């Protein structure tokens, strides 16, 4: 008895020492369409929560349990929520990506996410079912930590999101993106760029005050440069990893990246200073007239003083030289991980397949979702779970051994930059080429440089660590992590257009431990039933023979070697005509064609796939 209360006394002390008791924080999200016009240019449908948009910020303290009840009332669209950067250590089933760790939640269904938060910093949450977060379904997720090394160094906190913004629904953009008319894979160009989901804002500040500013790029596509004229600041966190303070005056945030910075305001209240964001135009295939790439908001010291427009040092991004994230030293000084037990080598390519659409590849695989969420395959496969083949030929699944040091080499055979994100982990960034400089994000000289293990830069002693990293154009990245978090984790480009065209692969981490630790709550299985998605079996939903993948989802067939991009459309047409014997062909879903009188085209026959070819219409746009 005495001993029991003695222990009890100490656990109370432990709680007191922690500062505050870990609590459960619950959010009820009714997800519906609402309308918004954040750039003043176009009112549109956006995904709202409890009738509101911008979406609420999720605020928790380190150690809390977070419960999010999501009720999908969109009526016409499936959804899910990924809590970006959360380790979900022991709760892989709460990670959120559809067909990876859960079924898509169909309209009319709901799901509960429930997990403890044992990390801190600046994160975000977003829909992770094919094409859903560019419609506005994303918000900030902040994890406060009284024990942060800089906790006593600031007076107030400011959260600033930045994002690209489209005027069209993502389903209409998708139809244009994945189409015969877009054989080069040009991504949809945003209509504007927002700061904190609006424009022209004044962020009111007090003089001689230190602010912790949390920056999040929760866009779908375009990276942005950020600076405040005449101000410097200290970086103290990158993607949830505290860093040795680093002085900087400009940052680049790809989509999905975050920073926390400490900024001390000036003593004088005479002037206001432009907060300048510049969209990374190197990602855009075209820059339409009227698209404002650089935007000014204000650090406002004085309401009545003038609010000057920011001055961008060059009309394009090449004059901008942001702070390098490669040399950020994690505050915990975690050393370079030892030589890897396992190495994964993949190369990014963009290519056309037999449909004529442009797909994204890691090696020769364009990620194609399995018929059963891969986590559910792990749980129903018994001993076969350790064999990557059961996850299918098109999910690019790699089985990792528990606690192995994994090295991932990512080469870029593409001339665009790609922000890659690994779920469930932060990784060390141990090599990256070409070297950092003003043209880093737009490196177009010469051929791709692949990683050469016999000739590389020396690895840093304390490598930078984060959860989303930019793979430079035609360069490479080498990252390391420890497979100490059993689960199925997707590794993917965070440009939503590239994810949906296949730039992803799956880490099946310690499947035997997943089977011991993970149990799926009933409501998650109910979601599968409501969505008519099987939740047992291999990638082809075969529950009898896990090695029989007949009927699995497949990427379209390869185009025979030797075809140029121009030849592809012709080839696809001749194949389609040969197969279905029609002359004229109509693509469904192209907004401009939908609005046209179809009698302009050869009469389609009603019971076949029809595609109409319109001359000079490589990039259809909406009127
Ligand atoms: C922001 O200001 C510009 C003029 O500088 C104006 O054209 C634009 O409509 C404003 N946007 C919003 C959302 O207020
Ligand atoms: C969600 O909708 C249900 C009924 O449709 C309502 O009872 C509930 O209060 C709503 N929740 C919130 C947080 O608005
Ligand atoms: C969340 O999970 C905890 C631990 O499993 C459980 O005790 C609690 O009831 C769950 N809460 C909800 C709302 O499901
Ligand atoms: C950003 O927007 C949110 C509303 O979405 C608002 O509560 C917050 O005050 C804004 N932050 C700043 C710094 O203006
Ligand atoms: C602002 O004023 C405080 C005290 O009045 C002083 O300590 C500080 O150095 C001043 N800061 C600047 C940037 O001049
Ligand atoms: C604010 O700006 C106005 C106009 O420039 C100036 O007259 C005034 O003194 C300033 N106020 C403060 C508190 O600095
Ligand atoms: C903003 O950027 C555009 C190009 O995107 C450039 O033409 C313009 O000069 C820039 N504005 C300023 C004030 O620098
Ligand atoms: C990719 O290449 C491997 C090895 O050459 C081959 O076994 C596999 O079938 C290929 N996959 C696809 C989808 O082409
Ligand atoms: C996985 O299963 C396939 C098909 O049964 C077999 O050929 C292969 O050797 C297995 N691989 C491993 C690592 O056991
Ligand atoms: C090693 O890499 C450097 C820098 O990329 C290159 O200049 C050099 O030629 C390479 N050396 C060999 C032996 O490949
Ligand atoms: C997950 O938790 C285990 C302890 O249960 C720990 O060893 C491991 O480092 C954690 N992994 C991550 C990524 O948090
Ligand atoms: Cu990409």
TrEMBL record:
It comes from the Eukaryota. This is Iron transport multicopper oxidase FET3. Residues 30-146, 156-303, 367-512 form the Plastocyanin-like domain. InterPro entries: Cu-oxidase-like_N (IPR011707), Cu-oxidase_2nd (IPR001117), Cu-oxidase_C (IPR011706), Cu-oxidase_fam (IPR045087), Cu_oxidase_CS (IPR033138), Cu_oxidase_Cu_BS (IPR002355), Cupredoxin (IPR008972), CuRO_2_Fet3-like (IPR044130). GO terms for molecular function: copper ion binding; ferroxidase activity. Coiled coil: none annotated. The chain crosses the membrane at residues 568-591. PANTHER family: IRON TRANSPORT MULTICOPPER OXIDASE FET3, MULTI-COPPER OXIDASE.
